[in-house]
Amino acid sequence: MPTAPGDTISVAIADDEALIRGGLRSMLEGEPDLVVVGEAPSGRDALELVRLKRPDVVLMDLRMPGMDGIAATARIVADGLPTRVLVVTTFDLDEHVFAALRAGAAGFLLKDTDPDRLAGAVRTVAGGEALFAPPVTRRLVEHYVARPSPDEELTARLAELTEREREVLLLVARGLSNAEIAAEAFLSEGTVKTHLTRVLAKLGLRSRTQAVVLAYECGLVRAGRGTRAAG
Known about the structure:
- The protein is α/β, with parallel strands linked by helices.
- It folds into two domains: about 10-140, Response regulator (Rossmann fold), CATH 3.40.50; about 145-215, Orthogonal Bundle (Arc Repressor Mutant, subunit A), CATH 1.10.10.
- Helices cover about 50% and strands about 10% of the residues.
- It has helices at about 20-30, 45-55, 70-80, 95-105, 115-125, 135-145, 150-160, 165-175, 180-185, 190-205, 210-215; strands at about 10-15, 35-40, 55-60, 85-90, 105-110.
- The longest helix is centred in the C-terminal third of the chain and has 15 residues, at about 190-205.
- The chain is globular.
């Protein structure tokens, strides 16, 4: 369940460098609505921590020993755990980041992000949105998704979408929040959430982020067209 405004947000931190974990913890603990519930030095430890504590958000490094952050993200999403994954990485155009987004991560930030942006990102993904607004994330998707042709099975599933569901998918892929989609499509936020839930079910997806990636992969949104920069 996404958190509501005013709720306390629980956060776990996964990174193999103790200094990075400490720095992230320090930035988050300065926010009255954010609580760090644990740290993990590897993907396997992160998975166990998420299973035990069920935090709202886990900050996930990708390059960790043993089980990396991509595998841990995939397991968290596949297991249906409520925790949303926010990748924190050193490199903005890293194919490993894109793999994590495909696995279902809610978005990503760079490790040199300032405290205000980090806290805002945690609140964004905890609230059920995908962090696809920053231009760096759009560049990542545009760089690694090159106009592939969808397979027959995916084409058939796309054909099952109603006109309104397809419109909502396109607006999600443009980086709009539920509130912005509601205003654009003249719908209530509740109706937007219902349409998005149906889109994910029909396409066999587990997250909003996967829907964005699929829209690029299928050519529903072209690199440099129909997207916007923000943040």
